[in-house]
Amino acid sequence: MKYRSNQAHYHMMLLPGLLLLVVFSIIPMAGIVMAFQDFKIGLGIWRSPWIGLQNFKYLFELSDSRVIFYNTIFIAVFKIIGNLLVPLTFAILLNELRGRFFKRFVQTVVYVPHFLSWVILSGIIVEMTTTDGLVNQIVKAFGGEPIIFLASNQWFPVILISSDIWKEFGFGTIIYLAALTGINPSLYEAAVIDGASRPQQIRYITLPLLVPTFILLATLSIGNVLNAGFDQVFNLYNPLVYESGDIIDTYVYRAGLINAQFGLATAVGLMKSVISFLLIIVSYTLASRFANYRIF
Questions:
Q1: Measuring CA to CA, how many Å separate 282 from each of 79, 218, 225?
Q2: Cβ proximity of 80 and 88 under 8 Å
Q3: Terminal CA-to-CA distance of the chain, rounded, Å?
Q4: CA distances, 138 to each of 122, 128, 130, 164, 241 (Å)
Q5: CB-based burial, 201-231: b 16+ in 10 Å, e otherwise
Q6: pLDDT at position 93, please?
Q7: 3-state helix, strand and coil shares in percent for the chain, rounded to the nearest 5
Q8: What pLDDT, on the 0 to 100 scale, is given for residue 5?
Q9: At the top level of CATH, which class does the domain 63-291 belong to?
Q10: Residue 226: which residues within 8 A CB-CB, separation 6 or more?
Q11: Distance (Å, rounded) from C-alpha 175 to C-alpha 84?
Q12: How far apart are CA 66 and CA 77, in angstroms?
């Protein structure tokens, strides 16, 4: 009883967050019934006719559905791979630097884009990739022709994936640097006594001891396979690159808010949420089994 009274103020501190969760996340979930209705704004949820799974059937009959699912998975998977390998490589290289001030300066600089919104970063990317932008100036310097990157179905996914890695690899680097600090220095001292070079120390000590962190981040990333980044794509894409850049979230936005196909948009969003939920369960199970990571 005394224990519960001591914990009461902690539970009181949770109340504002729980209230916001209920208001903005739990109550709006009632709107998923629109996925099973021919929803009309004038009739509302209560009087719109029920059509069962017709919205889901219509979704799979659309020629666009295959494109948006392919684009979503393609972009998301390459983002996950890049955001795992680039921070790992950069953290190992940064850890090899001996200048403490320069090391922290570089770490801070690469971390800054993580805090910027995609509205700001998209403006920077647009300016850099115009025909007179920095990237095309470099292309011209090597004798190439200017490329309209944001209007090219060949280059647009590359821009999305590379810019996302640029934004997020600083944050991932900090996670790996934290893991590196947990490696016992005596292992490196013993390796030096045995005559191991720096590359050999990285290969036989650093990399094996970073494997658990890598596995943990990889398994937790599985839940994001259908999350290709609405903010980024919405701020960068245009009708010319729908073929290579249209993803589930942007399709739901256009179908629901622009074309007023509320039932179809809700069906697409509901299907994505269910699949993502299952992927999160799988990733949590794998993380618990292979990296001993548990929340509950």
A1: 19, 12, 12
A2: no
A3: 24
A4: 20, 11, 12, 21, 24
A5: bbeebbeeebeebbbbbbbbbbbbbbbbbee
A6: 92
A7: 80, 0, 20
A8: 66
A9: mainly alpha
A10: 72, 73, 76, 248, 272, 275, 276, 279
A11: 11
A12: 16
Tokens standing for residue 126: 């647009």
- Spans of all domains in the chain: 63-291
CA 246/CA 264 separation, integer angstroms: 16
How far is it, in rounded angstroms, from Cα 221 to Cα 283?
7
User: Which two structure tokens, joined as six digits, stand for 60?
Assistant: 């799979």
Under-70 pLDDT residues of the chain: 1-5, 291, 293-296
Q: What is the pLDDT of residue 79?
A: 92
Both tokens of 41, joined, read: 């704004």
Residue with tokens 């509302």: 44
Q: Give the pLDDT of residue 120.
A: 93
**Is 249 strand, coil or helix?**
helix
Determine the pLDDT at residue 296.
Answer: 60
Q: Phi/psi at 271 (nearest 5 deg)? A: -65, -40
Which neighbouring-strand residues pair with 50?
Answer: 37
Contact 56, 291 (CB under 8 A): no
CA torsion sign for 27, 29, 35, 41 is: positive
For the record, the structure tokens of 120 come out as 């700001």
For 94-121, give one letter per residue: b (16+ CB within 10 A) or e. Answer: bbeeeeeeeeeebbeebeebeeeebeeb
Helices (H), 22-155: 44-47, 54-61, 63-95, 100-111, 118-129, 134-141
Q: Compute CA 218 distance to the chain's CA centroid, rounded to the nearest angstrom.
A: 12
pLDDT in the model for residue 225: 79
Query: How far is residue 202's CA from residue 92's CA, in Å, rounded to a whole number?
Result: 8
β partners of residue 37: 50
